[in-house]
Amino acid sequence: MLQLLCKLASRSPWIYRINAGSCNGCDVEMATTALIPRYDVERLGCKYCGSPRHADVVLISGPLTLRVRDKVLRVYNEIPHPKVTVAVGVCPVSGGCFRDGYSVGADIDHYIPLDVIVPGCPPRPQAIMEGILKAVEVWRARLEESVCCHS
Amino acid sequence: MTNVLTGILTNSLQAVFAMLIFPGGLFVLALGLFLKGVDRKVLARLQRRVGPPLYQPVLDILKLATKETLIPDTANEGAFQLAPVLGLTGMLVTAALLPIGGVWNGVTGLGDLLILLYLLPIPAMGLMLAGGSSSSPYGALGFSREMCMMFAYEMPLIASFLAVAVRVGGAGGSGGSLLSLPAIMDYQYLHGPLLFDPVMLPAALALLLFIPGTMGSGLFDIPEAEPEVIEGPLLEYSGPLLAAFHLMSAVKLVVVLELAVALFFPNPLVATGDGGVMVNLLWHICKCLVLLMVSVTCFRAATGRLRLDQGFSFFVKYTSPLALASLGLAFLLR
Amino acid sequence: MLPFLKIMLRNLLLGPSTDPFPFAPAKTHKNFRGCAEHDPEKCILCGICRHVCAAGAIQIHPSEDGSGMQYLLWHNSCVFCGMCAHYCPTGALTMSDNWHLAHSGAEMFSNCISDFIPFGACAQCGAKIQPRPQTIIDTLGARSPDRFLLCPQCKRQGIVQNVAQARPTRRQENP
């Protein structure tokens, strides 16, 4: 019963985007997955939501600049459990071409655990959708774990 | 004595059944989620997308039930948790009061337009309470926007209610007005639906514009505008409380559509009796679907969002005069 | 009047234009620049790829036993600019059209190209030189295949000997 609930629940991943100092390239590609009929991420039950409180899957783009670091961490903590993080683009993982820049601190994975990584600069929309599907699998496993622990 | 007692007992049993299972409660929840699903699917098709499956709103609700509930430290915890419950129960009760043509005549003595006028703003009240108690600036913005829009769209609603009442009462020969929904429906069974009454056409149009106004879709997606105030009052909600708000909005959709159907086109397809009830119920759902397509889905596919002041003046300038024109004509032709 | 009605009707009739992607393979343009691919058979360790890489995704460092170099290209840092493939003199680096790169966070550092490239040996003295694969000998070394396989020192010696043989007694004749 609980297994079924988890299975059904994981078919409605709501997505929240955090721009951690990104150049906006990845954000455009993320918006593309929802806004362009050709990709239509809503078919997978996804919905981009404006509030971190509604989110299940967090898409992070950008190299986590010093200026936004505390704010990103604060927003990340607002997201209710269970949550899954997807790093979109190479910046969150390695800093990409911003690595060792004066305004870029350490990589995001020093602060936030990254569950799925979609490398690319920017990744194409289908790759982001692939990443979301991978994230949903991670999320389902996490959901089953948490539900079984509660009961 | 026993007869009276059993009468009261069956009446109250009937009322409980109405609230919990048939036209209120489970039925309305299922229908509301179905309508929401159809809305999303058709909207996607209008934009040449595949769209989510029809049962997606159910999955969303199940998903939200498994999530953690976060309550902000600075929020008023009681009011914060009360708001969605208040809105949802208010709407469920309202749904039980609405009669369905040829299927259900409403709880005896309660199907009254005045009660509906009091009950209909409850979800807006719930949202306002939510926005006010969540201690978030966006919640406060959503609160003020919701309140402004409520003042704007209540006016045409009241005016079209009155227009219908005056029309029905005038034709009844008493010269007064009739505020009872079953009586209004009886009138339409006799004289044909009010939708095809030229005097009532402006009021019907006003009610058609009231539906997106109160549902916050298309032009009037102002209080919960996602890109502007990040879903306003719902910003701080998560988990089951948010699910309650989504259910509330689904039930509200059904209530508003059923109300419009009851006021302007309640006529059943076939006579009641052996199987006729089911046919009439399907016919009623079809009417709701058509109304949903016109007033919510196509409307929001075709239009963008207005600013708050524009939205307010839209209702004051265009919608209210339409309803008032009907009211005036109904008075003159009494 | 109301042109959107026509558009909506047309959209309804035309049906969705969505790619069936997650349930069927997506179309990829043949010029699509996906992740880089490295062919160790062709690499001569010139290091121009590392030099032009804007994102610093390429590392070349000596292997522990000193018998060759370890070539590393980290996909999680590569920005798919294609400069390395453009400047690669031997065509060892190419940009494929593979974009299926999404992976779990645990595989963050294993998502890379890691090739061991052994040094070549000088044909004369056996000293370690840059690798000289056959494909490179056929192309870059086509002019003087013998000299192409020598270490710099042997090459220099060879040149000096050649020069000495060509003009053996010039200095003695004209003091």
Question: What does this entry look like structurally?
Answer:
The complex is a heterotrimer of chains A (151), B (334) and C (175). Chain A is an alpha/beta fold. Chain A has a single domain (2-145), classed as 3-Layer(aba) Sandwich (Rossmann fold), CATH 3.40.50.12280. Chain A is 41% helix and 14% strand. Chain A is built from five helices and five strands, in the order αβαββαβαβα. Chain A has a five-stranded parallel sheet with strand order 2-1-3-4-5, sandwiched between helices. The longest helix of chain A has 26 residues, at 125-150. Chain B has helices at residues 2-20, 25-46, 56-66, 77-97, 113-119, 122-133, 137-171, 181-191, 201-215, 226-229, 240-264, 276-302, 308-332. In chain B, helix 2 (25-46) crosses helix 12 (276-302) and helix 7 (137-171) packs parallel to helix 13 (308-332). Chain C is an alpha+beta fold and 175 residues long. Chain C has two domains: 29-98 and 107-118, Alpha-Beta Plaits (2-Layer Sandwich); 119-164, no CATH class. Chain C has a three-stranded antiparallel sheet with strand order 2-3-6, with no helix packed on it. Chain C has a two-stranded antiparallel sheet with strand order 1-4. Classes of the chains: A alpha/beta (151), B mainly alpha (334), C alpha+beta (175). Chains in contact: A-B, A-C, B-C. The interface between A and C is medium-sized, with 35 and 31 residues.
Question: What are the SSEs and their pairings?
Answer:
The complex is a heterotrimer of chains A (about 150), B (about 325) and C (about 180).
Chain A: H1 2-9, E1 14-19, H2 25-35, E2 47-48, E3 57-61, H3 66-78, E4 84-88, H4 91-94, E5 116-118, H5 125-150
Parallel strand pairs in A: 1-2, 1-3, 3-4, 4-5
Helix pairs in contact in A: 1-5, 2-5
Chain B: H1 2-20, H2 25-46, H3 56-66, H4 77-97, H5 113-119, H6 122-133, H7 137-171, H8 181-191, H9 201-215, H10 226-229, H11 240-264, H12 276-302, H13 308-332
Helix pairs in contact in B: 1-4, 2-11, 2-12, 3-11, 4-6, 4-11, 6-7, 7-9, 7-13, 9-11, 9-12, 9-13, 11-12
Chain C: H1 3-14, E1 36-38, H2 48-52, E2 58-62, E3 68-74, H3 83-87, E4 93-95, E5 103-104, E6 112-118, E7 120-121, E8 128-129, H4 134-139, H5 145-148, H6 152-166, H7 170-173
Antiparallel strand pairs in C: 1-4, 2-3, 3-6, 7-8
